[in-house]
Design goal:
Elements lengths: L10 H26 L5 H8 L3 H7 L3 H25 L4 H14 L4 H12 L5 H27 L8 H13 L3 H5 L11 H5 L5
Keywords: DNA-binding, Transcription, Transcription regulation
Protein name: TetR/AcrR family transcriptional regulator
Organism: Ktedonosporobacter rubrisoli
């Protein structure tokens, strides 16, 4: 019988495996922290991910490190959306409609939003993370307000107090993930189209 020769993994292959394992653990942690908040443990995450707690600790020193990584990951897409809408061409109304669509779409992953809510509501969440989440929220509110004001000047957006319009949008969109708690089986089935929210702003 011929002996099978197993080629050693390349450095790139090893790095890819590490990245995949880390991403898998974070995805499991997202679900755990969305349910339990900071009461979750590394063992809870390991069980959810189907890995040993030793492997989980190989990538994260403690649950705080996991929570921090998840929070920063959840804020990456909103930050990129804000930068993109600032740089894109188009009228204020067109840019506002694009940002609103991205804002609504981000709530299709309720675990990420519920996680950010944990950061703001938990007394044990690090101040650094709490401030980071607040700053990103303020950036989004400020950009929405600016586009609403500019859209009102071009008659693409309904007249009215821009601060009230921003708060109305946030109240509606941020209420969506609550349905993931109340009715998780039908959350995506009945997820509203962004056009519904755009009607709040149309003149």
């Amino acid at each position: 019988m011929r002996r099978r020769i197993v080629m050693p993994r390349t450095a790139e292959a090893k790095q890819r495996i590490r990245e995949e394992q880390r991403a898998h653990i974070l995805e499991a942690a997202k679900r755990v922290f969305a349910r339990k908040g900071l009461a979750a443990t590394v063992d809870d995450v390991a069980i959810e991910a189907g890995v040993s707690h030793g492997l989980a600790y190989r990538y994260f020193a403690n649950k705080e490190a996991i929570f921090s990584a998840l929070t920063k990951q959840a804020l990456q897409a909103p930050s990129a959306d804000l930068q993109r809408v600032r740089d894109m061409p188009g009228t204020p109304g067109e840019r506002l409609k694009w940002l609103l669509s991205a804002f609504v779409a981000s709530r299709q992953q309720p675990e990420s939003f519920l996680l950010l809510g944990q950061v703001l509501s938990s007394q044990t969440a690090p101040d650094e993370l709490r401030e980071l989440v607040r700053q990103r929220s303020q950036d989004l509110q400020s950009t929405l307000r600016q586009l609403i004001v500019e859209g009102q000047e071009t008659f693409e957006v309904a007249a009215g107090d821009p601060d009230q319009l921003v708060r109305a949008l946030f109240a509606c969109v941020d209420g969506l993930p609550r349905w993931a708690v109340y009715d998780p089986e039908h959350y995506h089935e009945h997820f509203p189209d962004a056009e519904i929210f755009w009607r709040l702003l149309k003149p």
